[in-house]
Specification:
By secondary structure, the chain is α+β, with helices and mostly antiparallel strands. It contains 1 helix and 4 strands; from the N terminus they run αββββ. Helix content is 26%, strand content 41%.
Length: 141
C-alpha cells in the first residue's frame, strides 16, 4: 500500500514537472516572438512604432538659387526702351513623409514599415503635396 502511494506521488511529480516544462517552453516561445517583434522598432510595454502606409505622402520643396539665373531681354512698347529680366532657376525636390503610429505588437502587420524617425504625414511648411506643373518652375536644360 505504501509502495503504491510513493509511486503515485512520484508519477504526480513527474507529470506536474512535464506540464510546467511545457508551459515554460510556450512562455519562452512567446517571449522570443515578442523580443523579435520588439527589436523591429521603437517599443514600450508591448507596443511597436510602425509606418501606416495609408498616410504616406509625397511632398515637393521649391528650391531657388539667387545666384543662378539667365537674363532675358525685353522691350517696353510704351517707353520704347529695352530692359532685361532675371529669370531664376527653380526646381522642385521630391521627398516622402510617412506617418508613424504606435500599435500593439499583434496589430502591427508585417507589411507595415518600421519607423526610423517618428514623423507625421505632413509636408514641411511652405512645401506642396501636389506635383508642380512645368510653368511653375524653370529647370536647367
Amino acid at each position: 500500500m505504501m509502495l503504491s502511494c510513493i509511486a503515485a506521488v512520484a508519477i504526480a511529480t513527474f507529470v506536474s514537472n512535464k506540464a510546467y516544462e511545457l508551459q515554460t517552453n510556450k512562455s519562452n516561445d512567446l517571449l522570443m516572438q515578442n523580443i523579435e517583434a520588439l527589436s523591429q522598432g521603437d517599443v514600450t510595454n508591448g507596443f511597436i512604432m510602425k509606418i501606416n502606409p495609408l498616410y504616406t505622402k509625397t511632398c515637393y520643396q521649391n528650391y531657388c538659387d539667387i545666384n543662378d539665373y539667365i537674363t532675358e531681354p525685353n522691350y517696353d512698347e510704351v517707353a520704347k526702351e529695352y530692359y532685361s529680366i532675371k529669370r531664376y532657376y527653380h526646381s522642385y525636390h521630391k521627398y516622402t513623409r510617412k506617418q508613424c503610429e504606435v500599435l500593439p505588437i499583434e496589430n502591427a502587420l508585417m507589411w507595415w514599415e518600421n519607423c526610423d524617425v517618428p514623423q507625421k504625414s505632413k509636408c514641411n511648411p511652405g512645401d506642396t503635396d501636389k506635383k508642380p506643373v512645368p510653368y511653375e518652375y524653370y529647370d536647367k536644360v
